[in-house]
């Protein structure tokens, strides 16, 4: 029997909505929040060249979660993710930590090689993942309230009446 990793098959659905998790190779780093502007620029660059709708996102020091909807007839999220990761990595200075394993193979990427993807099945699944994204800074101890974390789409959702400003905050 092959290991799970080799037999894993991604679902490619044209016009599908997906939840993604991308993780740094070195989970002890804060590269993503420290270089948030460059990360955002890399995402916008990819979005302009190969359109998709960014439904929600959160960026934590060592990983990020995004929800995307692809255009009708388009199922190519893997190449978008690959280019996004590469564009961000190229913008960084050479003093970012590269794992010994990657150094031995002459690889420069700061990212884990793979990423997690989940096809969002329906509106309830979408809503559950949007909540998960916005709760993530609290879960990882980076914020007391969802609104305290600046590297997410939470404030956009508050401005558009989806969440109250005190959603997922400490009990009053």
TrEMBL record:
Question: Which SUPFAM superfamilies does the entry link to?
Answer: Transposase IS200-like
Which Gene Ontology terms cover its molecular function? sequence-specific DNA binding; transposase activity
**Gene3D superfamilies this protein is in?**
Transposase IS200-like (3.30.70.1290)
Some GO term, biological process aspect, for this entry: which one? DNA transposition
> Transposase IS200-like domain spans which residues?
13-136
Q: Which domain of life is it from?
A: Bacteria
What PANTHER family would the database entry show? REP-ASSOCIATED TYROSINE TRANSPOSASE
Identify this protein by name. Answer: Transposase
Q: Which organism is it from?
A: Pseudomonas taeanensis MS-3
């Amino acid at each position: 029997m092959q290991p799970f990793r080799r037999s894993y098959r991604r679902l490619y659905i044209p016009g599908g909505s997906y939840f993604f998790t991308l993780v740094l190779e070195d989970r002890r780093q804060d590269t993503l929040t420290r270089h948030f502007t460059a990360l955002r620029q890399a995402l916008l660059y990819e979005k302009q060249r190969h359109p998709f709708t960014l439904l929600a996102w959160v960026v934590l020091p060592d990983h990020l979660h995004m929800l995307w909807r692809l255009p009708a007839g388009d199922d190519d999220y893997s190449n978008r993710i690959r280019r996004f990761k590469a564009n961000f990595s190229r913008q960084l200075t050479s003093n970012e930590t590269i794992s010994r394993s990657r150094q031995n193979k002459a690889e420069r990427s700061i990212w884990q090689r793979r990423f997690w993807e989940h096809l969002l099945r329906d509106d309830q699944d979408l809503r559950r993942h949007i909540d998960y994204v916005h709760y993530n800074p609290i879960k990882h101890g980076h914020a007391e309230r969802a609104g305290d974390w600046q590297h997410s789409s939470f404030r956009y959702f508050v401005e558009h009446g989806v969440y109250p400003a005190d959603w997922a905050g400490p009990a009053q």
